[in-house]
Fold this sequence. Notes:
There is one protein chain. By secondary structure, the chain is of the alpha/beta class. The chain contains 10 helices and 17 strands. The strands form 4 sheets. The chain has an 8-stranded mixed sheet with strand order 4-5-9-10-11-13-14-17. Strands 2-1-3-8-6 form a 5-stranded mixed sheet. A hairpin with a 5-residue loop joins strand 15 and strand 16. Helix 8 runs parallel beside helix 10 (330-347). The chain is globular and about 55 Å long. The protein starts with 13 loop residues before the first strand and ends with a strand.
Amino acid sequence: xxDERPARLWRPRRVLVxxxxxxxxxxxxxxxxxxxxxxxxxxLKSNRITGPRDADPRQxxxxxxxxxxxVVAPPTKLRLQPIPxxxxxxxxxxxxxxxxxQYCYLAGSLSGPPVTRAYANLDAILSNLGAYLGQGNVxxxxxxxxxxxxxxxxxxxxxxxxxxxxxxxLSAAIRHFGAWEAPVQLRFTTKFAAVAxxxxxxxxxxxxxxxxxxxxxxxxxxxGTASLDARLEALGAMARAGYPVGLTxxxxxxxxxxADSYAGxxxxxxxxxxxxxxxxxxxxxxxxxFTPGSKAVLQGWYPGSDLPMDEAERSRKLTKFGLxxxxxxxxxxxxxxxxxxxxxxxxxxxxxxxxxx
Length: 357
């Protein structure tokens, strides 16, 4: 059964802008975009953004999720961090996401209410990337992926396409990488589908657009996103525009008839790419996992969710930082990996599987 949810552009109920953001041309351009969409922009008197103070975590969450703040990225954002296994480095155009995914990994990564913050000092963010050229350990140092050049991940802490109509930051980054005469690649992944503004950009094959997709039975966990069909249609459109593309299948869940469900997802992706001659296609396979902290936050945000997060049904692991996370038991992980790997090889034989985690 097709997923027929319409694609909608996010319209935040509140748009805040700090004085520091207005000192940057990109900050002023974002204000102009918001006002052109009929949104009221509140110009703050200080550079501090405070989240909602409601004692009810669900109400605080709703208010934060409906807020876009235009701010200046702090200096720490210019000190890039490695982001294996996806890319050499991550850099942030924004922090926060307008979607309402009940498994959201940002719940364990960001502190405080999830206000979406878009960064106005875009020129500094992009000009800073050159210092990291050729210095990574994922694609820069691995023979299997060396052809990708130095890779920069732009969607670690946000979905840049979900806010692109308000920021224009993703388009600017694509142009920057297209003009960069070096072996580099911009990478972003998205659960949205409004790719029309990106199709004609001079990307020169240096941006990989990946679409985060899941089995249709998981759609109920992905509120506020574009439908699966819209995402796959956008995948095909980007491939036909000459972009390297990818599927981020995440988070993989043992939904009913999971093997057939994920095989069907891959068949749908193959249909979306029909007619594209030799697409440059990658697949990333990411299973669901959670930490005690992220579980507590998500259950506060979504107290009625039936997303399975029973520790007794999981294996307990320690991260390299000594933190606890819960993953699927070994037998289930091996079965899912074998099944999805076989389905990718059968349905998308031209694809490169970058990793399983």
